[in-house]
Amino acid sequence: MRVNDGTNVAVQFRTDGDSDGNASVDDMVQDINSAISSANASLSFTANVIASNNNGKISISNTDGKDILLWEGDVAGFGPANINLVSDSPYSNFEALSFTAKATALTGTLADGTLWYDSVVSTDNVDILVNDSASGWVSYYYDVQVKGSEPTKQSDGSSSLVTGDLWIDGSDLENYPKIYKWSGTAWALVDNSDQETPDGIVFGDFRSSSSGSLFSFAPLSSRFPVGMMAWNKSASGGNVKKWNATNSYWADESGNKSDGSPYMLRKAQRQVVVKQLQSALASNQDIRNETNRFNIVAVPGYPELADEMISLGVDRKNTVFSVIDSPFRLAADATSTSAWANNSNNAGENGEDGLIASDPYAAVYYPHGLSTNLDGSSVFVPASHMALRTIAFNDQVAFPWFAPAGFQRGLVNNASSTGYLDSVSGEFQPVALSEGQRDSLYADKVNPIGNFPGRGLAVFGQKNS
Questions:
Q1: Coil, strand, or helix at residue 336?
Q2: How far apart, in whole angstroms, are the C-alpha atoms of residue 204 and residue 125?
Q3: Which listed residue, of 121, 181, 333, 401, carries a Cα 20 to 30 Å from 241's Cα?
Q4: Model confidence over 99-156: pLDDT tens digits?
Q5: For residues 63 and 52, is the Cβ–Cβ distance under 8 A?
Q6: φ, ψ (nearest 5 deg) of residue 213
Q7: 22-36, 74-88, 408-422: segment of lowest average pLDDT
């Protein structure tokens, strides 16, 4: 077994380690742990690898999060293949997701839970219904079209617009679906968070296709006002769907925000990842076990995990400090940063729309950085990438209670520039925060990372959230 820096740890399996007459899984687990324990005495580091009996199977994990590489010994006639293992193959803690981005639905025999990112934004890939007074949810009566500019005719290109026609702005994918309804004289924006009035819209799974029957679990029309529209996420594009193999249909996996508006396109993909991260952090009991010692936690690039990280710290009796990132696309002007830090938009949960969580054992950093990948290419890195290294450097050269900030202990040496992602172009926008911007961030309990001429990059804040 090859661990951490490439050191090989030889494991010799005995036929009956506990002399009970059986060569059991527990015997082999004991052999592995004994070999690692013996090797740790001679290594310059600790190989944080441990074996356990998981329902009759040998489970080997690395608490450092690193891969484990198995290599074949010199026992004739017996090798890794005899116990269903592959030599010289890295075994990772990371699990590959069944996730596919495709313009059309996946075909063939699909495993239950298969994910599909339905990425197509087009008129043909939208299914909208309306709550009819007599029949409940029915297909929308009027013309619907996805277009990059305001239509002056219906989708056939010749018919005049009539009251009730819909236009979905295909040019603003960041806020998709931006839905407008023709009033007879002008296009009026539909409020995606309105699930209470006839002018609103509800987002959910209604049917497998625009010509299919309603699902038995579709939102009840009786719960919504007559005239309200419905966006069928099961048969419309722009979201991540999960395959239900039992009943053979695609169901929305991206979900909606707390105000009822949907996560769509890049936000839909992100939300699926966020849900898995939140579940893993909230349900993991091993990291709450006091035998696993650590005092700092971060989920780089995901402010959505702020409350889960803080809850972890509380569960561990406030022995864990949380490093929280600001959103990648948060512009550097004081209005934008202050609105996010103070949740001026009344977001229902932590994320790109606002920050809700705060804690004396947590800190937020902004902006993000530009660094170098292992292959030499420039890569965008979250603020925590810089903050974590600065905290570690501070602990190396000073006592832990000294502030990891300023030109002595807060210098950043793992990035070359600071900035954010432009929400329109998706490209890195460099920014050197002015004194006013830094002061505004600091007043809002966000630690600024400044780019100072002649001094370089430095963390210039020591506030908790």
A1: helix
A2: 15
A3: 181
A4: 556 667 778 889 999 999 999 999 999 999 999 988 999 999 999 999 999 999 999 9
A5: no
A6: -80, 155
A7: 74-88
Q: How far is CA 365 from CA 86, 289, 456, in A?
A: 43, 28, 17
Q: Which of 364, 357, 258, 271 is nearest to 314 (CA)?
A: 357
CA dihedral 142, 146, 150, 152 (to 10 degrees): -50
In whole angstroms, what is the distance from residue 177 CA to residue 158 CA?
25
Question: What integer pLDDT is reported at residue 75 of this predicted model?
Answer: 65
Identify which of 216, 196, 200 has the alpha carbon closest to the alpha carbon of residue 208.
216
pLDDT digits (tens, 9 = 90+) for 383-428: 999 999 999 999 999 988 899 999 999 999 999 999 999 988 889 9
Q: Are 118 and 105 in contact (CB under 8 A)?
A: yes
The token duo for 209 is 């296709």
Identify which has the larger pLDDT, 232 or 98. 232
Phi, psi of 281 (to 5 degrees): -75, -40
- Bridge-partner residues for 57, per DSSP? 54
**CATH no. of 284-459:** 3.40.50
pLDDT at 421: 96
- Can you give the pTM of this predicted structure? 0.76
Mean pLDDT along residues 47-68: 76
Q: How many CB atoms lie within 10 A of CB 11?
A: 18
Residue 430: partners with Cβ closer than 8 Å, 6 or more residues away? 370, 417, 418, 419, 451
Average pLDDT over residues 201-227: 96
Instruction: Please report, for the chain, the start and end positions of each structural domain, with discontinuous segments joined by +.
Output: 2-91, 100-262, 284-459
Cα–Cα distance, 152 to 196 (Å, whole number): 30
Token output for 29:
């687990």
List the structure tokens of 380.
């965008």
Residue pair 282/364 in contact by the 8 Å Cβ criterion: no
pLDDT on residue 3: 57
Rounded CA separation 187/195 (Å):
20
C-alpha distances (whole Å) from 266 to each of 62, 175, 210, 254, 269 are 32, 10, 24, 10, 5
Q: Return the SS3 of 9.
A: coil
- Round to whole Å and give the CA distance between 39 and 47: 8
